[in-house]
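Entry 14. Ran structure prediction on the chain below.
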Amino acid sequence: MARVLLKRLGSSIEKFTSTQVFSENKEHMANLEKDYDAKRQEVFSGWGEKYVERIHKKEKLTAWERIEQLKDPDTKVFPIGTFVNYGYDFDGRTSPGAGVITAFVKITGKYVVVIANDNTVASGAWWPQTPEKIQRAQKIALKLRIPVVYLVDCSGLYLPEQSKSFPGFTGAGHIFKMNSLLSSHQVPQVTGVFGDCIAGGGYMPIISDIVYMTEQAYMVIAGAALIKGAKSQKITSLGIGGPDIHVHISNCADYRCPNDETVLKNIRNEIEKLPSSAADYYRYGGEAADPLFPAKELQGLFPKDYRISYDVRQVIARLVDSSLFWEIMPNVGTEMICGIGKINGLYMGIIANNIDLTDHPQTGNKRPGSILYQQGIAKISTFSRACNSDGIPIIWLQDISGFDIGAEAEKQGLLGYGSNLLYTNSNNQVPMITILLRKASGAGYYALAGAPFDPVLQLSTPITRLSVMDGKTLAIATYNTRLDDNFEIATSDPEERAKIEKGMADVESRIQKDMDPIISARQMDTDEIVYMHELREYLETISEMCYQTTGYRTVKNPRIWSIHDINALQG
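Output, structure tokens:
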């Protein structure tokens, strides 16, 4: 009978770095987080206190207040998509979080995906990227078969920008396709309608299994203003599609409730009726445990200079339960680390870049870390396939500069090995979670399950640098025809030299700005920017979500894992 033998990993801070270096790194990270704290609060505040007061005068709750009442006491809400649209200007208006809140919320002991219109932002209207943000949350729920709760208070499309949110392949209408796919895959959908529910907003609740309406809520294909203009009929939206109509006549809604609080209480009751989480079953009699080395220490592990290495095993030791880890194939492809650990008591596969210098397998010479070489690619391809076969979710810890390049790389067929890895990850059915710890560059970002390869969740950090290459390298590549073999400017004309220098400096500066994590977050190239000391909490949540629902994917008993075969063959 095969057993999973996890071994102690990591050590206390003072054994691998100086107190001074750790403190300097921690201070640097804390300053970055302070800036992000201010930005987060800006988004969470919506359009501000004036709009909160308007909602309260109507005896309604804000979206965040609704979520607070919905969640289990003493549990945290885990937002995703916080910075979508951050910094964009729409003719003098902003749309914090694209006017919608998407988050993982625990209700009656089970995680659900909550999608809530921010009614402090243009009455919950849909802005550019609002549909895509809603769909992203729906896709996570579909991948994991996690219930979806919609808290609808939506005035329809923000019409001045409708051309950017209405017509495309991921336009507003694709939300309804996702509603339909969730329904056909038997993913529970429960909706509370709290106010405006116009046009597309009116369609979204209908495919839900259960729809609650407050006395102030209405669902209409077109609101009163449009009807007055089109048909010269003077009638209120509540009269057109309030609970009198949709609960008692059209049957487009199921129940009416006097206020927000009652709807939220009833939604909790509906979620409680669903099967309990299977996560405890898949702990196989074990229990969740904190890492031996505190996760909060991650704040000081990463050097201020991204070119300086660190020990990624110390990072893993601060993410996995009891700092226990089973490393697979440790003696080959040492530029990559892969193995099994528990997070929140649940088995998770982990694949990580080794940032340190490693030995060349033939010459023994040292070569840079953060690079994909032949054996490392083959190792993680094999491990990824085994995890998929065994039903073990995979966490990818990226700090990748890219693939090896040059004559040796081509002779070894890295294109073929890389394609094998891309094929493997493209066809994996097991949930994959990608964390961009620091660098996420070139095709290596794709190969390690970057966003284009549909991980169930991709997280960035305040020090993530997502780009093809760094600014200086890209500037050299851009102006390559103007440089000599030593990459020096190949001209003696002072005026031309100055022009090239300025052009290269401009390219480098622009690329450096584009690598700001806020840029990728606001255009939905990543799901959320998470602080280093928050990574463990997010992984605890997503690991439980991966095991919450039974019957939709393979989850093998650990005794019969394919990974045991790999370990036996490797000795």
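Residues 191 and 211 are 5 Å apart (CA to CA). Will compare against last week's run tomorrow.
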